[in-house]
């Protein structure tokens, strides 16, 4: 029914339009009266809108002798009746004739009135579009009507003529009524214009959806919603209408059609394509203006004033009176009893001295702080609060996981047996591992177990974020060759040992220590087979073997060439042995010196007596060459001689504050230099020139002055365990070996920190030794290698020492994960001796 009603209204408007266009239009009213009429018509239409009978609502009129009729009003105020399909067929032929006469009369009257009311009967573009749509629908229904019988066709024509007659009669009545209202309103408006005090105010028509967005989707035919429209690229339709029917895509022209439309269509430049329907939409002038304002970075609304005067609702001026105008309560004028009690208590506290005023509190604070002094030339950068002002540094992000962390990594990422052992060896130094985990391979992801170190890693990450300081560092692009020092060629640094010349075989167990005679003719060695052997260097022949009661930990030949004494540490006994090799006069002189019993007037303390006991060797040991025995209360690990040969020092790591002892041969007296233990002592050393004593604990090296009996210097090694040390013959440089595969070179005149750290070995470094004449030093390690290095120390204090590794000697065999245990230089020649776990002593020349 709704479609039929729209169609009927459309046909009325089309007929009126044709009648207007066919007649000659002539108007004699001037432009001012036309404008007044338009304003007045607008005012009347607004009054009609404000009336109780709203536009667009269905109204029902009833009479005593007629059925119920429904009327619908269009936009111009005309009412059209809603007829059922069967009404027209019930009317008689007389009524049809009557309606035809009325329609003819109405059309004649409309032709006379169209000349005066031309502007009132204009048809909107939207109505024309509706009419065109209805015409299309009529054409679609025509074939159906042709197939109907003749009787039915005649009934339909009668019904149509009756409807047209009724609509034309209603339109005529409404037009006459509106015309009368217009003339009355025009007269009133003229009288108002004559009065200068009155001003004409045309009320604005309030839109239905002015304050809401309800009508945003009212005209949308496509109901697919806010979705990407490219989803329908593969289909012939572009969506669905309100009746759930497909909306067919409009036909697309080719390039020629676009070119012709660009030339012929004046609105081509302002047409855009609606993605919802695929049709061209012409932008209005308001849309064009809005786009221009947005492109020019202006406010989209032209009525908005950006520079309107600003009203300061809240100002910086303090008001004397409150802005609120609320009357005060009655209780606000009465004194508070609780406040009176508080004030009385405070007054009593002030009188009794329990409470102090603010002035007294500030005065006491100033007295407690005392006078404040300022730097005369202080700068802003030195102040603490100024130095704290800096940009925050964000925490560095963790590295993204790589292929090694996959549950099914490539074969090249899986550790082999060698890599697995190296990774396990670095258990104590996990920061040196390339990967903090061992890559594993699983057939599927469901077989991967829980990561056991997850909580630990999260905890360490939180600690890094919470405790580690952050700083921005500028990345420097430095050439790697620039960082490598320019070292001389090893050929220019000869002589130094290069090949293995002799192998001294005879021990059956580990050879822990070796020592060379001061003249360079003999060498002594100590082994775990409880024997001490004396060898001839030139021939490799074992001259003498001395058996002991315990494992020999250390042997040391006296550096004084006028004496022939060997100090041997076997268990908790220190044996002073005359080897009976070399010059016979020297051997006799040594026996006479050790046989004399000195007369000591001083009394030894109980602390020394309980730690050391001197005794003469028994007859059996005398035959072996043992002359004196110094018994200690703990096992001895190391023995070292003073340069003059009268003092010998021993180290007992388990002796606590009596770990280091110094023995004097000429007086047969022992001393305990330290009353407190500063750590677990590993080895000691005498300075070759000065009266200084070097004591190496597990982590540090302390230097003491024996004359002043005070600590001179403490060297920081930054290592976990020190294994040995050797001092340069000039006494200004110290070389320290550690079990964490490092050698530390200390320049005693430069700093307490290492001058250079050498990481030449792959395993623990057991010992180091300087040559007495040549600028050479050697290191022994568990990786079965002896590395010979050139270490030149210059007399010019401004020139740093030159350290160059020159040769790696590796001929020993491994036994129980031990390699080379000790190393010693020939006193005259550039030869080096090494003792290893393979029960051999090797000479490199």
Automatic annotation (TrEMBL):
A single BP term in Gene Ontology: maturation of LSU-rRNA from tricistronic rRNA transcript (SSU-rRNA, 5.8S rRNA, LSU-rRNA)
Region annotation Disordered: where it falls in the sequence: 1-220
Ranges for the WD repeats: 504-545
Bias (Basic and acidic residues) ranges: 9-27, 152-162, 171-195
CDD domains tied to this protein: WD40 (cd00200)
Location in or out of the cell: Nucleus, Nucleolus; Nucleus, Nucleoplasm
Name of one Pfam family that matches: WD40
Any one GO CC term of the record: preribosome, large subunit precursor
Keyword Coiled coil assigned: no
Alphabetized UniProt keyword annotations: Nucleus, Repeat, Ribosome biogenesis, rRNA processing, WD repeat
Domain BOP1 N-terminal: 232-497
Domain of life: Eukaryota
GO molecular function, one term: ribonucleoprotein complex binding
Thylakoid among keywords: no
Role according to the record: Component of the PeBoW complex, which is required for maturation of 28S and 5.8S ribosomal RNAs and formation of the 60S ribosome.
Sequence similarity: Belongs to the WD repeat BOP1/ERB1 family.
Protein name per Swiss-Prot or TrEMBL: Ribosome biogenesis protein BOP1 homolog
Species of origin: Bactrocera dorsalis (Oriental fruit fly)
